[in-house]
Amino acid sequence: MSVEFLSEDYIVKANEFIRLNDSQLVALLGDLRTILADGGLTRTAIKWMADLFVPCDRFCSVATEGWLIPDKAPLMPVIALLPGIDELRRFYRDNDIPDQVLFDTLFDVGRNMDECYGRNGRYVIEDQVFGWLVRHFTARLFHLGMLQFEAIRFQEETALLKKGDCVINTHIPAAAKLPHAAAVRSYKLAAALFRKLMPDVEFKGFICESWMLSPQLKLLLDSSSNLVKFADDYVLYGVHSDDTFYSYIYIEKPGDLNSLAEKTTLQRALKAHLLSGGRVEAGRGFMPIEKYA
Length: 293
What we know:
13 helices; 14% strand; alpha+beta; Aminopeptidase; 46% helix; single chain; 6-stranded mixed β-sheet
């Protein structure tokens, strides 16, 4: 990879694949000009690019913890990741992965930029989001149907799984619509893809950690709810306190719970539950790969 990625023409061309909207692209190009005007930032961007694409085990990814994202160029992580697109396209082509999967996977860049904007009032890439997006550009995470998946080694000892077991980690994109049939299709696509990419690996199944696996939701919603059907596919091996559901269901946690919106069945049910002193826990669940594969 060369340093040609530090040019407006390169970023505009790369945007054919990540598909940022006009305001996102303007912000990215503005940060590029800031980087080019500062020798230190230019050297850092080049070093990041070189370090991000060092070959490593498919079960691991480059750790970006401690990489200081500059406040005056907070989108530099995206700029450093864009050179990976050419190799990513070759990987998808060589493994007969449809172009639509590539576009759907890289669409996460703009989605995460919008989420960071909502939390910061400007376009930035937060530290944890940087590490998240590395997985997309190094062919470790794939958006298949309605869900996203990556292969990982399980890091706990439970009755269902042992430490070191190979599993497919399920991620639920923000605002994803999840009719059960669509979720099942995604699981089937993921099982087929990872078995093809890693034929010598025995995958035990899928895991998921989410507020959508909250045991409280089953008590609040009808069994016909897509959320309940999604949760029913998993056997829980743990729960923990987690307020992230507010950002997905209500945009943010308010100071006064009485102000929570009541536009949907889920919002109304949760609001009543919370006002009565109830809580919502996130669940961690396991589903054997044989269920849908």
